[in-house]
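quick q for whoever's on today - can somebody do inverse folding on this one?? i tried earlier but teh output was garbage lol. tokens:
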């Protein structure tokens, strides 16, 4: 008797055992995909974890439906990596699997298919069953997996569907992705029989009575001689006016051949790769130090101030790796915000770059997955956000985690609630790849690990071209208000500086924090503000849409003056957002071209890239924006950065508030004066004496680090302890409260101290569910084992309690 343990993409901890025959047992290896029945009628795609001969005690094993791959799709190393993630973040292997694999690898009973229309396919013979499915799809547009079962009159259908997907004939019905449509370009060519000179002359003689066709033909001949080969239809038509009809005649007669070819975006870069830049002395030194650190350590922190030219240093390291035939992973916090960087890397590495993007369709993700697995040259350098850490690398040499301090590397929901940077470090250890963490404002954890010698540390303190870091000054809003020197939210100092910068033909960036108080409506009579009916939070005010909206659940209602609490007609906007800043400034400076970059203005498909492009091209004078502006953008002509109000950041109730404020303000400031002239930064604040603001002004990372570490040590926060957060959710407040109290007590009994809460978070109800948090602090040096077993057991005990059965419990390791 042979068995396999299979990981299924569901949130249940253990693997499931299925029976296989002797041939299957010899064929199957860990990482192979199999289709298996589950429960009464479900089918799942599972990954083989282990092949063995021990029958399970507790249940009767079923047989697998079928094997889906010739070769394992998941490597042994990946399985180890998944195991680490599941252990560390306290979730199931199945949840990791679901996050790791592109959806097209996970066919299951819920799968719906349609005809593939966006991708070209090559004619290959299809089996009778495949033909049958395609025919049904011609008539019915979509088929559910059960329809396919009925159609083929058999249960095992995942294999045939997979085959059709692989042949580009069938696609999955997905709701949410940016469709990647390969660009098709038409090429023209003289039919082979006329390519001989004699034949061509004869042909031209024959064409005396069709002068226009003759002209088209001559042009085609000339162009193809110049380009030695096929000519783009577009090029020919722009060379001959009125050429469309005669060209069609020539094509119809078979004298000219037309062919559509796919030119994907990658190919466009093919011809355009460039040699990397020579490094400055300081960059060169940093590069050598990084190499030296890597000789001894596997992780190195590269602390380079904004605009020090870290990217060029990465490029050198990548070059070496690619030349040695190794794979490189380049991780970024948010891919949507980094079109600039991607084009820079494509510029150097051309078609060896693959971008892995969760917003592309699953079919494209499958393509990158397969390329990485095969060690294809087309995906030797993979760029992407956190989920790239799940690709099946075979010979990984280097991982770069750029902007490593960014907390968008963390996945909050659903499980696995993993951190991309930390998972990358573990992947590096499993694959013997070097890991380079880069940032101008490193995370405290990373800097701590570097200062204690666990990681290497390389600093680059000067900007490229020896440009000085921006001249940063604080503006006291209390003082300005007292002296009546404010125009709306602009101090006279900031307004003057804006005018001066614009008069020098330079650009301005104004930053308004998204967190902190959002614009709301408040009643001038009774002081109450309209609330979301589903969440305990005030609705925010969106002038452009004429709506009040909830940022937590998406509830929206038209703006009204009518107060729901006291009935008077005196609701008025309070607080301010980017939209209001834009409007105020436009009134003050009617001539200026002002645009806004925030979640509202970047919703459309390429809205974000367009805004960045317009700003780069100097079509915008002032860009008002939120956090998005801080993300590593490289603008050349920004003379001034203004921060509208820094205090809201500092007052955020979170132990990372200071660290994050320092990072965010330094990063925003870093957009100023990146070339030649020194830039200027003005930070408006009610509390300019605040230590963090002083440290931002003097670019004092070390001072901030020292102060913060003292606080963290004192209160037992990371990096001295690891935090685990338990969130309890239920529609009934009492039930939720009882459950969270029970759990906090149970934790205390297990761990003695380090338990905080239960505590109601600032927004205590979301989507009609009441929330509370319990925090557990676990000593960092104790490792995973110290909590994994105990916490896992407590969660199981909790879930087994009848009254708590409907409470949702979310466990989040390293939640902040
Ligand atoms: P960082 O990522 O450290 O903020 P960048 O890599 O974006 O800095 O570099 C800042 C600017 O300096 C970019 O416009 C880049 O093109 C330029 N730069 C950096 N290094 C070089 C170099 N060695 N030669 C020419 N230009 C460089
Ligand atoms: Zn709501
Ligand atoms: Zn009122």
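ok took a stab at it. sequence:
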């Amino acid at each position: 008797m042979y068995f396999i343990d299979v990981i299924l993409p569901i949130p249940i901890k253990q693997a499931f055992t299925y029976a296989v025959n002797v041939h299957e047992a010899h064929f199957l290896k860990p990482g192979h995909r199999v289709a298996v029945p589950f429960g009464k009628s479900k089918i799942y795609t599972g990954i083989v974890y282990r092949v063995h001969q021990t029958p399970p005690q507790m249940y009767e094993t079923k047989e697998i439906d079928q094997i889906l791959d010739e070769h394992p799709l998941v490597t042994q190393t990946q399985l180890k990596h998944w195991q680490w993630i599941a252990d560390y973040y306290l979730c199931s292997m199945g949840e990791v699997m679901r996050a790791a694999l592109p959806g097209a690898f996970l066919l299951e009973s819920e799968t719906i298919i349609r005809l593939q229309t966006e991708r070209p396919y090559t004619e290959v013979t299809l089996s009778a069953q495949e033909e049958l499915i395609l025919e049904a799809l011609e008539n019915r547009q979509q088929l559910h997996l059960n329809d396919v079962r009925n159609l083929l009159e058999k249960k095992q259908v995942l294999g045939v569907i997979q085959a059709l997907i692989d042949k580009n004939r069938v696609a999955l019905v997905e709701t949410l992705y940016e469709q990647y449509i390969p660009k098709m370009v038409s090429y023209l060519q003289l039919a082979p029989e006329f390519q001989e000179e004699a034949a061509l002359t004869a042909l031209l003689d024959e064409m005396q009575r069709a002068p226009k066709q003759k002209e088209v033909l001559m042009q085609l001949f000339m162009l193809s001689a110049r380009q030695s080969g096929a000519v783009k239809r577009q090029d020919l038509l722009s060379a001959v006016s009125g050429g469309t009809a005669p060209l069609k005649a020539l094509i119809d007669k078979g004298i000219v051949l037309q062919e559509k070819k796919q030119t994907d975006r990658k190919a466009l870069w093919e011809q355009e790769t460039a040699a990397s830049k020579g490094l400055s002395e300081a960059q060169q030194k940093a590069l050598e130090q990084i190499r030296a650190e890597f000789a001894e350590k596997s992780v190195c922190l590269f602390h380079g101030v904004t605009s020090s030219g870290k990217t060029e240093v990465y490029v050198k390291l990548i070059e070496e790796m690619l030349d040695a035939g190794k794979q490189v992973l380049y991780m970024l916090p948010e891919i949507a915000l980094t079109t600039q960087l991607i084009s820079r890397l494509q510029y150097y590495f051309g078609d060896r770059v693959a971008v892995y993007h969760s917003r592309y369709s699953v079919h494209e993700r499958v393509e990158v997955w397969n390329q990485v697995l095969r060690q294809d040259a087309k995906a030797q350098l993979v760029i992407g956000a956190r989920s790239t850490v799940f690709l099946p690398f075979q010979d990984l040499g280097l991982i770069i985690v750029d902007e490593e301090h960014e907390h968008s590397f963390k996945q909050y929901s659903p499980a696995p609630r993993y951190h991309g940077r930390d998972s990358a470090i573990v992947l590096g250890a499993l694959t013997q790849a070097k890991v380079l963490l880069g940032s101008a404002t490193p995370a405290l954890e990373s800097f701590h690990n570097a200062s204690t010698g666990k990681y290497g540390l390389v600093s680059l303190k000067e900007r490229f071209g020896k440009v000085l870091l921006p001249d940063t000054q604080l503006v006291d809003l209390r003082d300005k208000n007292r002296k009546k020197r404010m125009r709306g939210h602009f101090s006279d100092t900031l307004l003057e500086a804006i005018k001066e910068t614009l008069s020098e033909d330079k650009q301005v960036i104004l930053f308004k924090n998204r967190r902190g108080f959002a614009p709301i409506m408040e009643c001038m009579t009774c002081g109450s503000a309209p609330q979301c009916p589903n969440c305990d939070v005030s609705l925010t005010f969106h002038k452009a849409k004429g709506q009040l909206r909830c940022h937590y659940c998406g509830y929206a209602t038209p703006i009204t003056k009518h107060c729901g609490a006291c009935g008077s007609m005196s609701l008025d906007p309070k607080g301010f957002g980017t939209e209001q800043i834009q409007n105020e400034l436009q009134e003050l400076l009617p001539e200026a071209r002002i645009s806004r970059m925030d979640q509202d203005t970047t919703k459309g498909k390429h809205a974000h890239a367009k805004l960045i492009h317009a700003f780069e091209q100097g079509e915008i004078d002032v860009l008002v924006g939120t956090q998005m502006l801080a993300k590593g953008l490289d603008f050349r002509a920004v003379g001034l950065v203004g921060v509208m109000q820094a205090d809201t950041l500092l007052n955020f109730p979170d132990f990372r508030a200071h660290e994050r404020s320092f990072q965010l303000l330094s990063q925003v400031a870093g957009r100023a004066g990146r070339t030649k002239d020194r830039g200027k930064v003005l930070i408006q604040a009610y509390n300019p004496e605040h230590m963090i603001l002083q440290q931002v002004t003097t670019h004092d990372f070390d001072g901030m680090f020292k102060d913060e570490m003292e606080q963290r040590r004192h209160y037992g926060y990371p990096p001295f302890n690891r935090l685990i957060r338990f969130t309890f959710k239920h529609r009934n407040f009492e039930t939720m409260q009882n459950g969270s109290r029970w759990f906090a007590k149970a934790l205390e009994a297990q761990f003695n101290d380090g338990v905080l809460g239960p505590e109601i978070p600032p927004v205590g109800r979301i989507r009609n569910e009441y929330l509370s948090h319990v925090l557990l602090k676990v000593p960092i040096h104790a490792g995973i084992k110290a909590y994994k077993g105990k916490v896992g057991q407590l969660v199981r005990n909790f879930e087994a309690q009848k009254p708590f059965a409907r409470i949702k419990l979310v466990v989040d390791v390293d939640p902040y």
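fwiw The pocket of zinc ion (ligand 2) is lined by residues 532, 534-535, 550, 552-553, 555 (CB under 6 Å). also The domain at 109-177 is CATH 1.10.10.10 (Arc Repressor Mutant, subunit A). so keep that in mind when u check it
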